[in-house]
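Progress report, Aim 2. The chain analyzed during this reporting quarter is listed below.
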Amino acid sequence: MLRHYGVLDFQLTTWVYMKNLFEAARAKEVKERMAQLTPDSKRLWGTMNAPQAVAHCSAGLELALGDKTPPQVLVGRILGWIVKPLALRNDEPMRRNSPTIKDLVVQGERDLRTERERLLGLIDRFVAVGPAGCTKHPHSFFGRLTPEEWAILMYKHLDHHLRQFGV
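Predicted structure tokens for the chain:
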């Protein structure tokens, strides 16, 4: 996916290729990496274990698909428009220990097999419905996202948590 960036009118603009979850190859890559997770996979940062991280990723896709529609938080209304272009401007991975949306925090024990099947189904659904299936509801922090921005963010989010466990 090519992405156009130019924050202010007087700046030069550029086109940058961005990995995104609408691409079948990216969805396949994520699924193959997810298959390498085990309940005992050691995290390299953060507090979630592997099953919790997979459940957390499912909750993120539910946002993108409009299954969950939490309100935009105040700090997002103030800063989201500034942070969004920084977070989505290139294929750099998300930073370790990035803050998370309160509604996506997963606690308690989870079964990896169950959570993985749920996430695989959500990935398949996201790819199948494509841009038309993305929510128009604002992201809790970033605010309004285009379908292309949702696809980039979903890939980056999944990649972030797979890297968290070294896969």
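The longest helix spans residues 112-129. The longest strand covers residues 2-5. These observations will guide the mutagenesis work planned for the next reporting period.
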